[in-house]
Structure to design on (796 residues):
């Protein structure tokens, strides 16, 4: 196994980490205006992700850095090609980030209301756009022989990609609702639970729709075979079982199941993509792969050593932070945000 | 306007804006960690209130640094994709390491710090703040490893028309890093020092409650600011001597030196013509530049005209001079602000040593006016570093004009530039409003307010 493969796997790990963790952060942000009846409720909701959201967001920054370091051509083609989409993403992440930090620092109701909607939009837009982006990567976008994207913003908004966006949007929102059921108490937990129960069916429909769409719009399943194997099936089963656990009010298990759904779905996409990293819709030979987009072997070696040391360390201390703040939060608790 | 010009404007605006927040984060993280350590060691609640007050301002500032930092990472690919293709093999590595080693550390532990006051033992909580400080400053290290490579590329080979890393250790041991990194760290320390000094002075003058907190903050910040201001100057001096060797054109432009001189005179004031490329009028101090550049009175300092001819011979026809007025005036802006910082810190030190803070003299409120000085120095310093390197994006290796994304149209970049300018402008207003509000509010009547505010606010 050469290091190009290792780095494909590492980028996948970082993206999965990002989807798992930021996934529920986005979900919590999206549910904020609907589950919080008053200001204290909304603060409780934000405080459930308070200690984590910033550390969670670093997963995508690390993934971006890893792509830049290991696959510069992928980074260059994708970031310049998906220009307006990424700009929207950046604006969303900016208002969302400062929204968390600023919203409770002034008492004026309008101030708080505005930031709450910023957090909502700032969570909704990326939750949708990441799906759109990855659906486009696997579906294929016009990339020419010089590895340059030759489409425009409209090219990215095709029905298949939008279906991918709705799949991630719904999955992250469900993931967030389950997380809130797990982290809050009292009325808020009750509302979060009801939201999770209500969101489950639409999520199943949207995710299933995306999977069926993928059969026709991509070569993913021709590549994986008629029976695509344990991973995609596992993703589907986990999503179904999540619904059952939600109904049983076993939110810990439900959270594990939505996490599995997200992780296994991401792995499925990675398997369908491999060894390509961006599919060209113009000519299969022009697709970017882990070889033609990669850095040299020396850089990959250096980066492998760095990643093997630091990713486990990150996992340990992030795990510790989740352990410290494992309790449920309620209206009577000290709310920092 | 072409896409190149707009992309450069966007980079300039977003970098300067990002770096407006970064130095305070770097310096204040360490200072808050020091305050909390004193609290743990003495058990004196006064230091806890001090830690929480400055910690609050730290957080407001930190959030802005984070969200504007993501823009920087994305921008290399969005606007500068040909640059990214050319240098990714070398330049991507420090950026990725920054995220893995430093940014994860500071973000995760900052979350623990904010929410962990009642959940962690005191000593552990202070240790967490130290990890935040280490994370922030490590983050600066890796970003500067990346930037230093653009200023003075080492440890690479050019293969198939792109740069490939051959020696990772060379990137880290690049002497350019070991000037830039301490320079930025001490800039951060002086920024935080004057920030705390100015606000403490305001509260001493206002006789706000918790005088003990303001007095101690003032004392600590005076020492901190002075250390920062003196060391940033010393390192900067050594860095300038290094730039003279590594990037003689940047150095000559910053000194407005057109003709090679030996001994070289120092420009005290130079006015150029409207194109900014010709000297019209100059007041010069003989021998001084030789002395500053190489520690003797007679050495040769090469001027832009000779360097231009030499560069044309090496790299082909073209204009190898950076925008001279920007290089010259940003250098002077930085120097002036730096010298003023030392001049302002000395009377503060006098007050501290003489124990004249109680009651504080009226003049002390003037220290509030010193807060912008480090900001002026930080901003003009980065402008000099980046503009002075032009026309190169990687010195001697790649021209800025060859780094820009070829597929992104000028209209798209302009749209993005205007959007960012608008959002950033609005956020600046909000951020300054919040900082001023919390800085003025002080300690909320001196009692132990829950994190001073985040709880339902008692105005």
């Amino acid at each position: 196994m050469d290091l190009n493969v290792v780095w494909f796997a590492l980028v996948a790990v970082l993206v999965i980490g990002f989807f798992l963790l930021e996934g529920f952060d986005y979900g919590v942000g999206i549910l904020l205006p609907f589950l919080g009846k008053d200001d204290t409720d909304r603060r409780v909701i934000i405080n459930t992700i308070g200690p984590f959201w910033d550390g969670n967001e670093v997963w995508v920054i690390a993934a971006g850095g890893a792509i830049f370091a290991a696959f510069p051509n992928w980074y260059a083609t994708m970031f310049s090609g998906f220009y307006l989409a990424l700009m929207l993403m950046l604006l969303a992440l900016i208002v969302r980030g400062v929204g968390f930090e600023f919203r409770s620092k002034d008492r004026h109701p309008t101030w708080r209301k505005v930031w709450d909607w910023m957090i909502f939009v700032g969570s909704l837009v990326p939750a949708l756009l990441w799906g759109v982006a990855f659906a486009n990567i696997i579906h294929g976008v016009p990339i020419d022989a010089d590895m340059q994207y030759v489409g425009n913003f409209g090219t990215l908004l095709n029905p298949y990609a939008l279906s991918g966006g709705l799949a991630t949007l719904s999955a992250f929102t469900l993931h967030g609702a389950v997380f809130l059921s797990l982290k809050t108490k009292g009325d808020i937990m009750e509302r979060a639970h009801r939201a999770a129960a209500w969101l489950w069916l639409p999520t199943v429909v949207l995710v299933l729709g995306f999977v069926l769409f993928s059969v026709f719009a991509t070569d993913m399943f021709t590549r994986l075979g008629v029976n695509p194997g344990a991973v995609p099936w596992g993703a589907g089963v986990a999503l179904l079982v999540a619904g059952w656990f939600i109904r049983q009010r076993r939110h810990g298990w439900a959270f594990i199941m939505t996490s599995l759904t997200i992780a296994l779905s991401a792995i499925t996409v990675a398997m369908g993509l491999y060894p390509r990293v961006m599919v060209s819709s113009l000519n299969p030979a022009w697709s970017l792969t882990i070889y033609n987009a990669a850095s040299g072997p020396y850089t990959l070696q250096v980066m492998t050593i760095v990643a093997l040391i630091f990713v486990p360390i990150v996992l340990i201390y992030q795990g510790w932070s989740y352990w410290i703040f494992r309790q449920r939060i309620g209206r009577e608790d000290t709310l920092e945000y | 306007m072409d896409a190149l010009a707009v992309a450069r404007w966007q980079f300039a605006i977003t970098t300067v804006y990002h770096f407006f927040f970064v130095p305070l984060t770097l310096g204040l993280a360490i200072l808050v960690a020091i305050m909390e350590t004193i609290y743990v060691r003495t058990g004196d609640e006064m230091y806890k209130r001090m830690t929480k007050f400055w910690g609050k301002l730290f957080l407001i500032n930190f959030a802005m640094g984070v969200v504007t930092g993501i823009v920087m990472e994305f921008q290399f690919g969005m606007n500068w994709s040909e640059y990214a293709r050319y240098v990714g093999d070398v330049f991507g590595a420090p950026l990725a390491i920054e995220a893995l080693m430093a940014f994860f550390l500071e973000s995760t532990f900052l979350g623990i710090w904010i929410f962990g006051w009642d959940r962690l033992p005191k000593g552990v909580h202070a240790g967490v703040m130290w990890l935040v400080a280490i994370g922030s400053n490590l983050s600066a290290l890796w970003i500067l490893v990346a930037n230093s490579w653009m200023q003075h590329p080492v440890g690479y080979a050019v293969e198939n028309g792109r740069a490939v890393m051959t020696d990772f250790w060379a990137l880290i041991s690049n002497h350019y890093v070991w000037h830039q990194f301490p320079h930025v760290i001490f800039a951060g320390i002086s920024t935080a020092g004057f920030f705390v000094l100015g606000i403490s002075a305001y509260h001493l003058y206002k006789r706000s409650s918790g005088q003990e907190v303001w007095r101690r903050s003032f004392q600590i910040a005076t020492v901190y600011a002075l250390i920062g201001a003196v060391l940033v100057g010393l390192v900067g001096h050594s860095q300038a001597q290094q730039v003279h060797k590594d990037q003689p054109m940047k150095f000559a432009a910053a000194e407005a030196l057109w003709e090679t001189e030996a001994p070289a005179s120092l420009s005290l004031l130079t006015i150029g013509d409207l194109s900014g490329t010709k000297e019209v009028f100059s007041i010069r101090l003989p021998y001084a530049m030789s002395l500053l550049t190489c520690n003797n009175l007679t050495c040769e300092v090469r001027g832009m005209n000779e360097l231009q001819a030499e560069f044309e011979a090496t790299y082909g026809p073209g204009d190898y001079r950076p925008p001279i007025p920007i290089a010259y005036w940003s250098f002077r802006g930085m120097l002036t602000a730096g010298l003023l910082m030392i001049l302002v810190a000395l009377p503060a030190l006098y007050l501290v040593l003489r124990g004249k803070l109680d009651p504080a003299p009226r003049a002390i409120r003037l220290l509030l006016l010193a807060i912008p000085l480090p900001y002026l120095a930080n901003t003009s310093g980065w402008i000099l570093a980046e503009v002075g390197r032009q026309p190169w994006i990687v010195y001697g290796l790649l021209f800025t004009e060859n780094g820009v994304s070829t597929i992104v149209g000028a209209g798209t970049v302009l749209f993005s530039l205007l959007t960012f300018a608008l959002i950033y402008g609005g956020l600046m207003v909000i951020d300054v409003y919040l900082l001023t509000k919390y800085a003025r509010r002080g300690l909320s009547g001196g009692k132990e307010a829950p994190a001073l505010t985040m709880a339902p606010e008692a105005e």
